[in-house]
Amino acid sequence: MPTFVYMTRCDGCGECVDICPSDIMHIDKTYRRAYNIEPNMCWECYSCVKMCPQHAIDVRGYADFAPLGHSVRVRREPEKGTISWKIKFRDGREKDFVSPIRTTPWGSIEEPEDFPAPTEEEFKSQDLWHEPAALKIDALPTLAGKEKA
Amino acid sequence: MPWFNTKRTITVDADVLVIGGGFGGCGATYEAGHWGRDMKVVVVEKANIERSGAVAQGLYAINCYMGMHWGENQPEDHVRYARNDLMGLVREDLGYDIARHVDATVHKFDEWGLPMMRDPETGRYQREGKWQIMIHGESYKPIIAEAAQKSADETYNRIMVTHLLTDRKNPNRVAGAVGFSVRSGDFYVFRAKAVIVAAGGASHIFRPRAIGEGMGRTWYAPWSSASAYGLPLPIGAKMTQMENRIVLARFKDGYGPVGAYFLHLKTYTKNAYDEEYESKWYDDLKGMVGDYIDREPVPTCLRNHAMIQEMKVGRGPIYMETREAFQDPHKEQVGWENFLGMTIGQAVVWASQNIDPKERMSELTTSEPYVMGSHATCSGAWTSGPDDYAPADYRWGYNRMMTVEGLFAAGDACGGTAHKFSSGSFTEGRIAGKAAVNYIKDLGETPQIDNAEIERLKAVVYRPLETYQVGRNEIVAGTVSPSYISPLQGLQRLEKIMDEYCGGIATQYMTNAPMLDRGLELLEMLREDLDHIGAEDLHQLQRTWELHHRVWTSESVTHHTKFREETRWPGYYYRGDHPKLDDDDWHVFTLGRHNPDSGDWEMEKAPVHHLVDD
Ligand SMILES: Cc1cc2nc3c(=O)[nH]c(=O)nc-3n(C[C@H](O)[C@H](O)[C@H](O)COP(=O)(O)OP(=O)(O)OC[C@H]3O[C@@H](n4cnc5c(N)ncnc54)[C@H](O)[C@@H]3O)c2cc1C
Ligand code: SF4
Ligand code: SF4
Prior knowledge:
The complex is a heterodimer of chains A (149) and B (614).
Chain A: E1 3-5, H1 15-19, E2 25-27, E3 34-36, H2 47-51, E4 57-59, E5 71-77, E6 82-88, E7 94-100, H3 120-124
Antiparallel strand pairs in A: 1-4, 2-3, 5-6, 6-7
Chain B: E1 9-13, E2 16-19, H1 23-35, E3 41-44, E4 59-62, H2 75-85, H3 92-112, E5 133-137, H4 140-151, E6 154-156, E7 159-166, E8 174-181, E9 187-191, E10 194-197, H5 227-230, E11 239-240, E12 249-251, H6 259-263, E13 268-270, H7 282-289, H8 300-312, E14 318-321, H9 329-342, H10 344-352, E15 362-366, E16 380-381, E17 407-409, H11 421-442, H12 451-472, H13 487-501, E18 510-511, H14 513-529, H15 538-563, E19 574-575, H16 583-586, E20 588-594, E21 601-607
Parallel strand pairs in B: 1-9, 2-3, 2-10, 3-6, 10-17, 18-19
Antiparallel strand pairs in B: 4-5, 7-8, 8-9, 11-16, 11-20, 12-15, 13-14, 14-15, 20-21
Bound molecules: flavin-adenine dinucleotide (FAD) and iron/sulfur cluster (2 copies).
């Protein structure tokens, strides 16, 4: 099934509904809790799992080819800038991994207004924004005048 | 009555409208925000821009980076590489353009906070291969979405764009787009001077290998719904190389990536009898493609061919030998994190089947075909090239402008430019973003939209909800109705047609003219049946319009496949009636267009200009 939701943990906040790229996490009208309405359109992308504040969502590998008894759990901590994984095999073996997710504070990317407005000359040149500086070479390369004979 | 609103129309005016907030769309939005400071830049996304598109779960590598400032590669080298991999046929002007700009894009990603791995000795970005650099990319998408949103005047999430709008006076000029909110049900009309289509590639055109609960575990995301082609095709935009679908050799069932395994971990493949098999197929391939088999590196499709044939003759499964590499704890960590960072489903498969790659090998297989333009394939729109060097017949307007005025393409949407991947798609979006602003600056009269056309489209967009309500009352219960089919039933019909007639897994990627003709006949009937899709709710209405876009794309793919009378990319697909590569007649691009007036598909050839020497 891909994702499923534990009844006792979900509080119906809707974060998973908001993030799922496939639009398949919906709130059940009777129980007011989330569930996967279309498991066969789930990519096991874990976007909803990472987002759930209650850790109420888990994944059970697709029935077509994944035998029962495994689990791949995740905890994403944006404030700490890390993501942690715990993999449990069907036979009980476990593996743990931790990776960084970002090196700067969230929201710190600047806006166009923080930079000088483009000049008329820049509009006409082939340079994109921040070029050539961001290329870290003197000038943008071109094929002009270099056409193959 | 449904609880949602299908009556209200919300009109949004924009200068630049970006459709799709994935890598191409975020690049376009980011760049247009800078050049168009006094213009209104709007991005519209069917999901949530923070986790939408092919990179929703993250990536573990940036696959297109030159490293010009370290003297690692030059843009010319990348053109040679992509040309070689695509069996000679790429738009070299466009490919060079991406390659010359891409380093600046990657340096910005680094600055924004994407964790880059570095070589401890040189301090440079850690290379995975000649073009790839390694990252901790779990948050790759949220980071670039943040940059795009800082540049956008407005972002609209959960709007499924269904149609493009054209100018009342000039039907070959774009004027905006319409769609609906998958949450509120409101109808959205976006009026714009320039439109950039960056709506990603296509999965679920061909029947996938898992067809039960696991049908969503395709290699390309199930939400890659072909809108990049399904939007421009109906208004007459020209496409190129739509026959050039891609088949991926990947870990079985989870479609876990193999790039890092081959390039960084140095694992290798063998057949079930412990034999190296690629060299066995050398003579066979030489007979089909001639000297192309002698190129370095061996083109992706030809390596697929060897794997497919080896399995066909009964020496499968094909295995990835991981046991030696995984004894090294660093490599073991990279191997697992590679999956967790971009294809978590593969880790789930291995955990469930007790596969510890340290102890046992793992099966590989070839996927069903996908239609896209940013990987080792280049399907997409035929666009105008860069001003400073594109050959005259590749240049009719602004950079990345399609054959429809004011309509631009980036990422999977843009044809002829293989091997751009995430960084190149973002870069191409930036190129299109600047060009679109320049287009608007030079524009005289603002395009005008016919209100009657908007009302007509509104009725068309919501009709599946009515069809369901009326038809549902005819039957007691269940899913079988004589009056409608569900979007899933329609999708499964499409996948079966494409699989069996257009070179899917059912025929081991084989097709021919009579099969393609039969496929077209069945597609035509499916297209008629699209008027009878019944949608229970807004979610199914989204699925209905995704299906429309997939069907348009499939027709285009089938016409292109029929037009190219050769087997150019064995391992991607085979024309049984033209089993060899034919450079005399087919060292050309295929261009295809649906003529909106006559309803005919028009096919032609365009020359391949080689701008970079061998
Ligand atoms: C499994 C996998 C592994 C990959 N590995 C790598 C790698 O290691 N390195 C690398 O550099 N690249 C990699 N790629 C490639 C990379 O993801 C793509 O090249 C890139 O995302 C293409 O960008 P795009 O903008 O064309 O499409 P996308 O990023 O998919 O964006 C398309 C956007 O359009 C939206 N959309 C679609 N239809 C509509 C509509 N009708 N209305 C509104 N919005 C719509 C979608 O929701 C999505 O947000 C990988 C891809 C996959 C799937
Ligand atoms: S995010 Fe978690 S708690 Fe909130 S609705 Fe979804 S499953 Fe329930
Ligand atoms: S894993 Fe991804 S596709 Fe599946 S329900 Fe969660 S967010 Fe949606």
